[in-house]
Amino acid sequence: MTIVEIIRAFGRDLPVGIVITDASIERPGPTIVYANSAFGHLVGRDLNEIIGQTPRFMQGKETRRATLDAFHHALRVGERFHGFLTNYRADGTKYRAEIDCRPLSNVPGKVEGFIAFEREVVRRIGRPFETHGGRYEAVSTSNDLLGDALRGLGVFSSSEADLRPSGPKEIL
Ligand SMILES: Cc1cc2nc3c(=O)[nH]c(=O)nc-3n(C[C@H](O)[C@H](O)[C@H](O)COP(=O)(O)O)c2cc1C
């Protein structure tokens, strides 16, 4: 059983968006090989419009190039990217996406694809919190077992370390 099969089995009903791509980083890649229904909902498209596309289809005028460059760098060196991007839905509405993307590999050192957990966040009113994502809070949270497991894995980690410079990119 591959990791993708495991995610297909468990990710379907998970309220957080999951998208998996192949390992081809340069244009026209990466190519989406799997997305769960929460991801389809997040980006406002049917899954059959998403599979086979590149995640770049969500980008628009206010998607910050500097953040995409940081994203690209992380993909190239096989590191985690955890940051915030302005993305666009099919109907043109924009939203803030928190993206936690990691390389997938069965053999150490050989990246076979990427998986990202994505969710919509909104800016907090008032001062940023010291912990829990700083300026942003999730639009919805899950309280199911798998959601807890993801938190256990540090997905969307809210540890203070993530709020330091190496953590999420605070881009407006
Ligand atoms: C699994 C995965 C999910 C991604 N999700 C998004 C996304 O939601 N929004 C976005 O703007 N870019 C997303 N990207 C990043 C783009 O695909 C692309 O890598 C980025 O634009 C940097 O590459 P470029 O410098 O060639 O544009 C994702 C990439 C991967 C591998």
Notes on the structure:
The chain has 172 residues and is α+β, with helices and mostly antiparallel strands. The protein has helices at residues 3-11, 37-43, 47-50, 65-77, 145-152; strands at residues 17-21, 32-35, 81-88, 94-104, 113-123, 136-138. The radius of gyration is 15 Å and the shape is globular. The structure holds flavin mononucleotide. Residues 19, 21, 27, 30, 54-56, 58-59, 63, 68, 71-72, 75, 85, 87, 97, 99, 101, 114, 116, 118 line the site of flavin mononucleotide. Flavin mononucleotide is lined by residues 19, 21, 27, 30, 54-56, 58-59, 63, 68, 71-72, 75, 85, 87, 97, 99, 101, 114, 116, 118.
What's the short story on this structure?
The protein is α+β, with helices and mostly antiparallel strands and 172 residues long. It is 24% helix and 24% strand. The chain is globular and about 45 Å long.
